[in-house]
Design brief:
Strand 8 and strand 9 form a beta hairpin. This protein is α+β, with helices and mostly antiparallel strands. The chain contains six helices and 14 strands. The chain is globular, with a radius of gyration of 18 Å. Helices cover 17% and strands 23% of the residues.
Length: 297
């Protein structure tokens, strides 16, 4: 698919928006992307699914730490377009309960580097401009994923901080979360705790050793999030939600009849140290992909 089919916005943040991001840990910009851009990304993902053979691999994605496990397919996904199933996708006999396109949890984690269309969208100069306006010196994409939040079986994502999984020294992770479809209370919109990023990072998800498949969750600080402080973040199609890496957020299971497609890019500052203990590593260690330089800020 030609990358010139994407219509990209321009975005200059206001002083108030920048202040809100730093004070609250997140920023919502509604209806930023043209509907056509969302539709092009969704349609292209549909084409990628058509070329995926589900009999070759059955890696299930879960955020439940009691049953969390990693496999080689997951650990090798940093520079690949890999497909992960919903926990409830299969029946007791191991067969899909519904069609493939309604069974995938997410596709990741190298869409921004391995697929021409998603690369053109992900690394566009408009996003590096936004990241620099928020204080990032040398923005680079480290991870990307297309999230389906399937009707009826879209799994819950527990309250977490993105920097748990993508740690840098000093802290620098920023998430760009795009609503490819409308995100509502019914179909599993994001929820977060405003100001919760000021508590600091609670946990780190690490490899037990460089190149190891075994992982561990390391507790840095003891703290229990207060669910009464959660604020819902329903947004229209095309909206951008910017998340500080230490901002606690979640999404509930989708039991509705409507999917909630989203695309997320996680960026880090190349000026910061990216440890080998992080689970996401490329085989050649070139895990950071610079964004196109902004023409003006």
């Amino acid at each position: 698919m030609k990358t010139d089919t994407l219509a990209m916005p321009s975005l200059q943040l206001t002083a108030d928006q920048i202040e809100q991001y730093h004070q609250q840990g997140y920023l919502v910009i509604e209806s930023l992307l043209p509907a056509k851009t969302c539709d092009v990304l969704k349609s292209h993902m549909g084409n990628l699914l058509q070329n995926f053979d589900p009999t070759t691999v059955r890696s299930v994605f879960t955020t439940n730490e009691q049953v969390r496990h990693t496999d080689q397919y997951f650990m090798d996904s940093a520079d690949k377009v890999s497909f992960f199933f919903e926990e409830e996708a299969f029946d007791a006999q191991g067969e899909l309960r519904q069609s493939l396109e309604l069974s995938i949890n997410k596709v990741g984690h190298g869409l921004h580097s391995q697929d021409a269309l998603f690369k053109a969208f992900s690394l566009d100069a408009v996003w590096s401009g936004v990241l620099q306006q928020l204080g990032m010196a040398q923005p680079a994409a480290v991870q990307s994923m297309y999230i389906f939040k399937q009707p009826s079986i879209g799994g819950e994502v527990n309250c977490h901080q993105d920097s748990t999984f993508l740690f840098t020294q000093p802290m620098s992770v920023i998430g760009l979360w795009f609503a490819i479809e409308e995100a509502t209370l019914e179909n599993g919109c994001l929820w977060g705790i405003p100001g919760g990023h000021k508590i600091g990072l609670l946990k780190r998800f690490e490899r037990c050793a460089p190149d190891a498949i075994e992982t561990k969750m390391v507790t840095i600080k003891e703290h229990q999030w207060d669910n009464s402080e959660l604020v819902a973040l329903p947004v229209p199609k095309g909206s951008l939600v910017i998340l500080n890496g230490e901002f606690p957020h979640l999404s509930y299971a989708n039991r509705s009849s409507q999917s909630r497609h989203a695309y997320a890019i996680h960026a880090v500052d190349q000026a910061c140290h990216y440890p080998q203990e992080n689970w996401l590593q490329l085989s050649n260690q070139q895990h950071l992909v610079p964004f196109a330089a902004p023409t003006n800020i």
